[in-house]
Amino acid sequence: MEINASASRFVSEYANQTIRVYLYFAIGFLVPFTIGHPQELVGVVVNATLIVAALQLDSYKEVIPLLFAPSLGVLARGLIFGPYTPFLAIMLPFIWIGNALLVVGIRELIANRNQNYWISLGASSLAKSGFLFGSAFALVSLSIVPAIFLMTMGATQLITALAGGCLAFGIVKLGYLTKTN
């Protein structure tokens, strides 16, 4: 009987994690794909989803697909940047790395090192936005992408990451979503 209870608990936990991965991926993809504008609202929801996933999922391998979902949603929609969409394709690897910096920063500092949430959020948001701005600046300087990417990959990324972190705090830390739900 004990083996069946253990197996049942394992199946339940696995199903819970799998459902979470699909749910977070769906939110990460569908919000940019269906809503699209305003970019600030979409960015807040996407960053909150990434942060919640970083704190709630058991391993990095479960979080990895989520790093790609938002930018693929934006690219699939093709409307957010209008004529700039082909340039967005050039930015995709940098966006994915920026998302990874946010997720890894949050997960490492909060979940693995038990650091203060707000300091961890600030550091991770700065890492993401700084990397994206630096990448955009280099690509603009080389005349590979237009200057509009400097704003969208700098200050906007910082603001939406911080605001997304505030939303994620409300969701996770205040108990609306726990690992066992």
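Next protein, fold it too.
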Amino acid sequence: MKKQCVSFLIAALLAIILSSCSGQSGQASKPAPELSLVPSATAPTATATIAPSPTALPTQQPFYITTTVWSNDPIVPVLTYHQFQGGGISGATHVRLDDFKKELASLYQAGYAMVPLANWLNGDLRVPNGKRPIIFTMDDLFYRNQIRFNPNGTIDPMTGLGTSYQFSQMYPDFGFSWALFSNLGDKPYLDEKNPMLLANAIVWSMDHGALVYNHTYTHALLSQTSYDGITWELSANDKRLNQLLTLAGRTDLIAKLGNIFALPFGAWPRDSAAENSLINYKNPSGVPMQAIMNIDYIYRPQYLLPPYSPKFNRLDLPRIVATVSAVDYFTKNAAKVPTAQTCKIGPLDQTRSIDANYLADQINQAIQNGSCPQGIYATDKFIFRAQGPTVELIFTVKNQP
């Protein structure tokens, strides 16, 4: 009995030991847990902030002015045309269109370029580099052989202004600039009952650089016109011009009219009282007489002087009738008219660029360092004479018109 109990106890003890060992082995053999594919909560990510770079201030460009420089006092021919014709022989008042085309070409080949009459009279002597100035005027406007339009509104090239405009489109450096001296009371234009046609011709002219001035209302002979008659002739023409611009809805152009007068037939008033009525005339805008243009033939060749010249007489300025021989003269004698040069002055203090003394000093420096020559310097505001060691202001450009 004792042996059986001992055997039982030993067996129980062995079972306990084996059970304990078996449990350790099973725990070690359990499969490893699977990795979950669900992401764990993501920690907040700090976003890098790039500070903007400071805005660069705009670089101020150096400031220069381009001047026209004349080697000596400039002069300019002033041609006066009247009417144009398709055939026949060119004369003093009627120029054949084929001859006119040849004249434009010969003047261009001689180095001329059109400049506005008003600019020259006001002292704006700037001319493109390498060019000689020439001024074109026309009297007795408005005839339809001087200007008319095609059905599509373009200017007819078989007219004087049309031929000139067509030439300027082919040779832009020659330009298109005219002073048109009108008589608005003695000639109908196309249709006397339709003044809008004339108004449109005037507007086109002024919009394209052909400015309209006074030549009396009826092309009056002033040597046979009274004091009151002269005042009436000028004021009636100006008033009619204002009416036509108003009719066309272009009152903005009235300020561009100015008050420049051309003597019909080149005839002066008959006495001092009548002459004073002309000289003292003011247009409807209150602009006093700015200039009186005379007229002559090429057998007494004359040139328009610069306005600073002691011989410049604003109330008796020369023009030459544009005959074939007159144009031939100015072409063959082109060397008498100085050629414009350009010279850049600077860099300048832009705030002082309207100071004549400052500009004179800057021009002098440019001459001293050899970048510009001596001569007559023309800007949009001043004319200087640079001669020897000094630069002298000799004229201040007048405001337009």
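About the second fold: Residues 75-336 form a domain with the TIM Barrel fold (CATH 3.20.20.370).
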